User: What shape does this take?
Amino acid sequence: MKMTKTLLATTALTVAGGAVAAQDMVDSMTLVSWGGAYQASQVSAYTDPYVEMHPEVSITWDESSPEAVAKLRAMAEANNITWDLVDVTAADAMRLCDEGLAMEVDHDEILAPAPDGTEASDDFGDMIVSDCFIPQIAYSITNAYRTDVEEWNGETPSDICALFDTEKFPGTRTLERRPINNMEWALICDGVPFEEVYDTLETEEGQDQALAKLDTIRDQTIWWTSAAESIQALADGEAVIGSSYNGRFFSAIAEQDQPLEMLWDAQVYDIDGWVIPEGLPEDRLNRVLDFLYFATDTQRLADQAKYISYGPARQSSAPLVSTHAELGIEMAPHMPTNPENSANSFVQNYEWWADYRDDIDAKFQSWLAQ
Amino acid sequence: MTTSDVVITETRTMPYGFTCGVVGAAGAFFGLFVGTAQGSGLAGIVIGALICAGLAYAAMAYMGTAQERTFKWGVLALFALAGLLIGWLPGLVVGTLFGWFLGWFIYWIGRCRYRAKLPPYLTGGQVLWHYAFRMICGAIFVFLITPILVVMPLSFNAENFFTFTPEMLAFDPAGYSLKHYRDFFQSSEWQQALKNSLIIAPIATLLAVTFGTLAAIGLSQPHVPGRQVIMAILISPMIVPLIISAAGMYFFYSRVGLQGTYLGVILAHAALGIPFVIITVTATLVGFDRSLTRAAANMGANPVTTFFRVQMPLILPGVISGGLFAFITSFDEVVIVLFVGSANQQTLPWQMFTGLREQISPTILAVATILVGISIALLSTVEVLRRRNERMRGMSPG
Assistant: This one.
């Protein structure tokens, strides 16, 4: 009953074109995100303009996305939902949706259509990986290397396998302290074609093969848990090549002038977006939906790309992506979706990881501890 | 000669072989570092040993104590110049320091001054142990304090990473900047966090001190039934792992509507601080003479007056140090506030925690430096007050 009412209300809202309808809405919202340059881009592109339109609204940011799943579980158990809108990765959104902790939404109902009238669900396309998930950006986990390594004698890495080539590219590596992406890259560099990676990883031998490949660099690798660590290690010169999020690399290279160069080969895409916690009271839900309608429209998503090099999730936003807000450089060449960068990109299989994650995580961690 | 006050053991000139050997070994040790930095550790050891042993011989054989001052300045100038040539400004600093040390060390060893303050009957081994013990203590001290000291120069970094840039190492002013301090004072997030910490910590401390002192006084009365059990319960927040208290408080507070409020965080921190106050106050109460309260009652003072005019001044040191611990607990606490607070109650440690995880920015180091400064100021104040208190008590006994 409550749901239908909300949906009816939001439909009315959609028809009114985002104008504030005379209905119950709270004036404060707690948004959860990842902090850093990414959250700053959301503030500039979404909340600042929104607050300008609705000066009565106050917005609180909570930088708790890394533990969003655990915290939402605790909130649901305590029946005390303090968050209004949560920024999570696609995989987390699927988990939250499965557990009933995130609200299922009808994308066409609550989100703005593209300027040419295309329905939201078509505009986002297959970025909508879950019924609870409202995509914002496409990013990638990729690699970068230092450009001033003397031992490399002028050679520069051109493909992902430079990670494992300690003869041509000696030095410390930095990789994420979890199997996702690392196992895939290891297999790819052990001669497994892209399309067979997950079939191989499914078998015990395949997992051992990946770990054996990783064994060759294990002692020369700094394993990071937060993306900031890997940038720190690379900027400091502790590591010479390693993985992180492409937006972090962009910030280090373009904004901080660090001697790094991107290695886009075999980059792995991921998607990030909003979920609405299940069980919000109606007045809070109304405010969230009003904000979401605004913050995920074509222009807002394109605006975010002025501040960080993550690709907008809407197809209709792509042509609007312009230059960096402060540096004035073209952003398109820095997007993971740029054709030159995505030429040899690897598509991660979410469902596969959802099934195998626990097993392989355990195996990977015990391998690390050996 | 030296300006030292008492000389227990007469100094004398040691055999040249001993002096040159010891000073040469020290030279080899330092030469290892300089040599490694310049490319060859082995050459560094040999050259360092030869130079230092040679200087020691020259000082003892030709200069003597008469020209000690000239010799020391000469060595200092020599090493300062060498440092300048090898490593420019940083080299100058290191060279000057080493030159000063070497001049002093040669005479300290060569004239047997290391025995000056020790009784004459000590054996060589005992003298060696005397200084080795001090070296070990110093090494432990350095081990404990270095991480804090490293943070300080890094917080003046002109870059956004935890990196000693070449400019910084060359003492180039361009390598240093106050931008991270500016960032701290201008960012609304950090200022909000600071404000929250400054609201929460003092109120939590006040509550902890009040309740903790009352509890300690009550529990020190012999006639209270179940004292041990009550004490154990009150102390438990200190023993139970924080995460368990935090999770428990989270669910309880959620139910009663305290979760995500200032009051909730303050109460939680007060509960954490109470054990510290109880323990320190109970300890001071052991030395408190109960006949004083009876004497006060005898003279017509009611219990409240007795408490404030007789008991309180005497147990004040315990109350203050307990309060200090309670304050620091609340000011440093991150686990409980992550659960019990919401983003509106974000405190400094919370902000540092997320900052460290999501963006390793030297702003955290700037904040850490400021906090270390505050801690030092706070502890020094308490120490000064304590000494003043002791002095005053010493002057007016009773």
